[in-house]
Amino acid sequence: MIRQACFDRFLCRVFSDGANSEWVLKGGTGMLARIPSTRATLDVDLYRNGFTLDQALEDLKRLAAVDLGDYFRFVYHSHVDAVEGQAQPYTDGYRVTFIPYLGTTKLHSFHVDLAIGAGVTAPIETTAPANRLHLPRLVTTDYRLYPIVDQIADKVCATMATYNGAPSSREKDLVDLVVIATTYPLNAASLAAAIDTERRRRRLDLFTHFTIPTAWGPSYTKMARTIPACANYQAIDAATALAQRLLNPVLKGDLAEETWDPIKLTWKGVDARSDDI
After folding, report:
1. What per-residue confidence (pLDDT) applies to 250?
2. Which portions of the chain are predicted below pLDDT 70?
3. pLDDT at residue 232, as a whole number
4. Buried b (16+ CB within 10 A) or exposed e, 232-247
5. Pfam family example for this protein (predicted)?
6. Structure pTM?
7. 8 Å CB contact between 34 and 62
8. What is the pLDDT of residues 127-164, one digit of tens each?
9. Are 152 and 262 in contact (CB under 8 A)?
10. CB atoms near residue 149 (< 10 Å)
11. Residue 210 in contact with residue 160, Cβ under 8 Å?
12. Per-residue model confidence (pLDDT) at position 85
């Protein structure tokens, strides 16, 4: 809870430019801002449009130093080049360390994964985070969230890609896909455009069927066990089948403007047959 409050006070500074902000929240922190019961995360993922990496870093330092009268301070400590990873290997980034203080008390440091060059295919969602602790008299700001369809596209393509010949190890991506499938309505055309754009950025061959690496299972089950949205999908096979139910009709090009129903777990207007899975 302390880390959650700390992240929120930091992000209120990041987005304190309001309508003029070009910052976007990604990753697990962005997921938590939409769906509070999803998996916890230890880092903040931020994307900045229109700046070089060094310009983005300087702007982040500027915003972190904003005084919101809440007795929090966020002191820049250091940064290193982000190692090219599985999330979005075509982007440039820094891993930035900040040290937070509450009054004179030093809190645990945290990392910001800062990226440029990602781009989005759908409108940014500006909203108050669903996981915010409602503390009176504090200055708060809405977050700018990476579009949910682009977040799905990142996870789908990261799962389907290989890395120096090795499959993805990010079993948490399947956790997130299950959480989204059971909680979030989606537009098929927007999702198809996002996945195709991300696939082209990664230079992946066209694929029409979502699969996971054969070694996945133990880590997924461990993470899913603690997440309410995954209660009926703690087995890797059940989780994969749900993800395929969501994704395969989109990947095959069978849909247009249909909407995903997270309650019925089907595309509206689509007969959920086994051959779609």
Report:
1. 98
2. 1, 83-90, 270-277
3. 97
4. ebbebeebbebbbbbb
5. AbiEii
6. 0.90
7. no
8. 999 999 888 889 999 999 999 999 999 999 999 999 98
9. no
10. 26
11. yes
12. 52
d(CA 252, CA 255): 8
- And the tokens for 137? 């008299």
Ranges of H-type helices in 117-275: 148-160, 172-181, 188-201, 218-224, 236-251
Collapse the DSSP code of 22 into the 3-class scheme (helix H, G, I; strand E, B; otherwise coil) and give the result: coil
Q: Which amino acid would we find at residue 250? A: V
Going by their DSSP bridges, the two strands 43-48 and 110-116 should be labelled as parallel
Q: In CATH terms, is domain 2-145 a member of 3.40.50.510?
A: no
Give the whole-angstrom CA distance, residue 207 versus residue 200.
Answer: 11
The number of residues in the chain equals 277
Residue whose structure tokens are 């940014």: 124
Q: Where are the domains of the chain?
A: 2-145, 148-276
